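ENTRY TYPE: protein
WANTED: fold as tokens:
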Amino acid sequence: MSFNWDDLRVFLEIQRTGRQSQAAKRLKYSHTTIARRLKALQDQLGLALFEQTKDGMVLSEFGQRILPFAEQMEGSASAISDLAGRINGVGKQKVRVGAPDGFGNEVLSHILPRLIASNPTLEIDLVPMPIAHKLWRRDVDIAISLDRPERGALVMRKLIDYDLRIYAGPKFFEGRERPKQRADLHAYPFIGYVEELLYTDTLDFNTILLPDLQVVYRGSTVKAQFDAVMGNIGLGVLPYYMARDTDLEPVLADKIEFQRTYWMTYLEENRHLARIQQTSEFIVEATRELSDIFKYRRK
């Protein structure tokens, strides 16, 4: 029995997205083409690969059994393409990097252009890393996250620790006394995350600080919170690397400290791909060269 590798790619993308329409977008095919290729593959195999549910398409029992083999074939095809591109010196080697907005905008957006300048065969996509982006779905090739993965066939590397403090805007304390201890924070308005959009509990700083803080503004990104703090409408917990060269004022910096860690992960099966190796090594080295900006220091 022989079948078209492109049909297996369709199978994999439907499995990752749960919908033919989403698979069509990712593969840049029409919906009709996706449906036709899936039907052709199922007709060749003589078995259904998916079951339709109200939440989308889920793998049939047979689909679950062939999934690991299809993923192995995908990994092998990627490795062949990667090797051929390096030997021939032609074609772009694309890498999609997903990162939280603070680290992505303040760090990666500044260092990744250097990687492109020194490796013209690379093509980098830098995308925000919400919870919806998954390595196993191939939404990204390299993921930067705050949660250390507990399981899975992943390569995981600690990237860097970073410090956070409570900050106030440059005019926030005009007409207000500064707090002297943690309990005093109840008297001040605060900035925080939109709770239902919080992608990790490690960022739920207001809950950690004190119960029932007066939260007057919520943003889904740290940049939105930074702008609100800068606008003097409330106190907020922000990364030092974002606040260090601004007029923001640290609050109770010696009494209330936070530290979090960025982790870098990618699929084990991609460990030997040159584009993944080059990009991941560069991110680690370039980030650690900037280690001073992540550790809190008094002005």
Q: What stands out?
A: The mean pLDDT is 88. DSSP finds nine helices and eleven strands in the chain. Residues 93 and 275 are 6 Å apart (CA to CA).
